[in-house]
Model the fold of this input.
Amino acid sequence: MNFRRIEWIFLAAFVVLDAFLVFMFVQTSSTTSTKSSSDTATTIISEMRADNISFKNPDTKEGTGYYIAGNNESGLKQHLSQLTEQNVRMQSVGKLTSTLRTARTMSTDNMKSDLTTFMKQPSNVIHGDEYVYDASLSSSGDHVFVQKVADGEILTGTGQIHLFVNKNNQLTGYTQSYVNNVKTLREKAVTISEKKAMVALYQYNQVSNNSRIVWGRLGYSRLLKLKDSSVYVPTWIFAVRSKNSSNVSLHRINAFTGASMKSASAASSTENETAAIETATGMVWNAEY
Done:
C-alpha cells in the first residue's frame, strides 16, 4: 500500500517537473526569438545609417489598434441645414467645401484655441467636436483638424478638416471630409513599433541612400474600399526626403502586418524643408480623393 502511494507521489512529481521544463523551454524560446528579432532590427538600423539615411531614433514601444470600418458616403449632406452664414457645396465624393460670408478674425497668439472654438459650434461645422487640432500637419494658412476614431486619428483625406486663414489672420472657409458610422471590426490588437515599421520601410526599398526620414506618424488609413464602405487599419506613415532634391515621398506601412501599402508622393519647389513637408502632408490628406 505504501509502495503504491510512493509510486503516485513520484508520478505526480514527474508530471510537475515535466510541465515546469516545458514552460521554461517555451519562455526561453520566446525570449530568444524576441531578442533575435530585436537584434536584427538594430542591425538594419545601423545599415540604414551606414547608407547615409538620416532620422531621429525611432520609438521601440508597441501600440494597439483596431480594424475599423466606415461608410464611404460621409452623410454631411443631411446636416447642411444646421450651417449658417456660409456658402456650402458638396462634391461627388461627399467632401464639403465652405466659404464664410464674412471672414472671421483669429488671434495670432491663440490661433488653435480660436479655431477650436469655431469648430465646436454646430452652426459652423458639422460634427466639429469629433475632430482634434493637429499642429504638426498645419501651416500658417492651412490649419488641419483630424477625425478621432476608436483610439486613434484618421491620417488620410477621408476624415479631416482644413481651415483656411489668410495673411490677415482671417478665417475665410474650410473643407471637410468625414467617415460616417465608424465601427470596430475585431478586438484590439498589438501594432508594431516605429522602429520595426522603419525597418520594413527600408526592407521594401521605400527609402534610398542619402535621404532623410523627416517624420513618422501612427494613425488610421484606408486599407480596402468596398462599394458602400471602407476598412481602415493602423498605419505608420513616413515622409522621406532626398538630400539632393526638394521632393518628399510619403510611404505607408501596415502597423499590424508590417507590409508596405500604396504610397503617395509630392514634388515641392519650396526653398525650405518645412514648406516641403507641408506640401507633402497636403498630398497625403488628398490622396484618397
